[in-house]
Amino acid sequence: MSKERSIRHQFEGDQLESVFVGRRDAEPRPTVILIPTVMGVAELEIGFGRQLVELGYNALVADLFGSEFRGAPRETMFGEMKRLRDDRAALRRRLEHVLQIARGLDEVSSGQIVVAGYCFGGQCALDLARSGADIAAAVAFHGLFDPPRLPLQKIKAKVVCFHGWDDPMVPPEAVVALGKELTEAGSDWQIHAYGHVGHGFTNPHASELQIDGVAYNALAAERSWTSFINLLEELFG
What we know:
Elements: E1 2-11, E2 14-23, E3 29-35, H1 43-54, E4 58-61, H2 74-85, H3 88-103, E5 108-118, H4 120-130, E6 137-141, E7 158-164, H5 172-184, E8 189-194, H6 218-236
Parallel strand pairs: 3-4, 3-5, 5-6, 6-7, 7-8
Antiparallel strand pairs: 1-2, 2-4
């Protein structure tokens, strides 16, 4: 069974509250930093963390928005996402801060960290890789692909993206552009594209948003999760 606790931390005046999901023996293990969707820390990502614990890993569900926004309305969260996306250099600093918080936890094997994110969180995982961060891998589930327009760094991490080909937020030309960007940065990269699949395909409640092109797809969710676990096994044995 997993053991969960809140991790309170502060970044540039924002009070953040991430959630660590680990095994009860508290031994150092490979750890996945999970960066949530625009809605911030929620039961969905904590549930993914629990699944990782069952497989022998730890998870840190990262709060980028602040504890005051936990459970806030969608309109509020979209405004907060825009605030963070409008300054990608500041967003990078925030992500580097979260990485340092993870490395400071006793249960985290500091040389065995993967960063994975969903939607906006997927873009964040890519942005951390783009910074040249020393992480094992960066993984985006239906992430946003547009680059941060910051100086290009050599990408040390393996990069894997799970993408719905019919995602209205990431058209095919953006997928090709990301592939070129990752190649130029020297990354070991993969992009898994799923036909007839849109945005948000890992979230069973995605259709409730009533946004065109945003829907859960059970088969794509299962395929992407299986491939993700295969990546963790490749990295950590």
